Amino acid sequence: MQSATIQHLAVQHSLNLTDYETEYDPDYAILWGFIKPQSGPNVTPRLLEDVRTHDRLFKNNGGRVFFEGALRPVNYYVTGSRMKGVYNLGGDLAYFMQCIERRDRDALMNYATLCVDNLYPRIQNYRVPNLITIALVQGDALGGGFEGALANNVIIAEEQAKMGLPEILFNLFPGMGAYSLLARRVGPRLAEEMILSGNLYPAAKLHEMGLVDIVVPEGRGEMAVYDYVNKVHKRRNGVAATYQARQAVFPITRDELMKITILWVDAALRLDEKDLRMMTRIVQSQSCLKQGVAATGEMQATQAR
Length: 305
Description:
Elements: E1 7-8, H1 11-15, E2 20-25, E3 30-35, H2 45-60, E4 64-67, E5 70-73, E6 76-81, E7 86-88, H3 93-101, H4 105-123, E8 132-137, E9 140-142, H5 144-150, E10 154-158, E11 162-164, H6 178-186, H7 188-197, E12 200-202, H8 203-209, E13 214-216, H9 221-232, H10 236-249, H11 254-268, H12 273-290, H13 296-304
Parallel strand pairs: 3-6, 6-8, 7-9, 8-10, 9-11, 10-13
Antiparallel strand pairs: 1-2, 2-3, 4-5, 11-12
C-alpha cells in the first residue's frame, strides 16, 4: 500500500478547539480526531467540551465534514492522541478532588453528564449508516481513556500500550460506561474482574481477551489503520451492519449510562481522606508526565502500594 497523506480538515479552524484537533484524508474518507490536551493527559472538562462541539457538528451534518469548501463523506472516524506514550489517563482527578472537598455534587454530576454526552453518540456510531469508528491506541489508556477506546467498533493498539481501570485503587469505580462496554464484549464476570482488580493489561493480553482487535509493533499504528481500511473497504457495508447488529443485540442506552453515573457521583462523595491521599499521589505522577517525564512506571508503583 502506498503511504497516505493526512490532510487538514478546514472546519477545525472555525471551531477554535484547543484540546482536540481533526484531520481529513479525502482519498480514504477517514476523519482523524486527535486528543491534544493542553492542560494534561486526562479527560479534562475542556477536552470534553471540545470533543462534544466537534462531534455535534459532525452528527448534525449527517456524518460529513467540511473540506475544501464542501461537505465530504466520512467512512471511518479514527480517534488517537498527540501525546507520546499516552492515549488518555482517564478522569481529571485533580478536578474530582476539588469537587469532593467542597462537596459539590452538581459539579461532579455535570462532569459525568458531559462524559456521557461524548461517549453515547460514539457508541451509537453517531447514527450514521456505514460509519466505522476506530480507536488508535498508541500509548496507555486508563480509566476514562480506556472507556473512550471501548466505545469504538474497532480498537487498534500498538504493542507497548497498556490499558486498564485503576479507579478501585482509590476506592472508586469507572462510572462512565466501563461496565456496560466491557460486559457487552466479554460478559459481566470478566468485566467485574477487570474493574475490581485495578490491573493494567498489555495490548497483547487484551487481544487474547477479545477487547483489542489488532495489535501492531510500536510506530505502526497509523499504517495499521490504513491496512484495516484497505482490507474491509470492499465489504464495508456488511462490516458496518455487523457492528450495528452487535449494538442491537447488546444495546447500551443513555438512560443506563446516566444511572451508572449517578452511582459514581454518590460513591465519589463518600471517599475519605485516605482515598483522597491515594488520588493525590496519582495526580502527582501524572503531573510528571505532563512535564515530559516518563512517569508510567512511577504511577504503577504508586498503584501497587
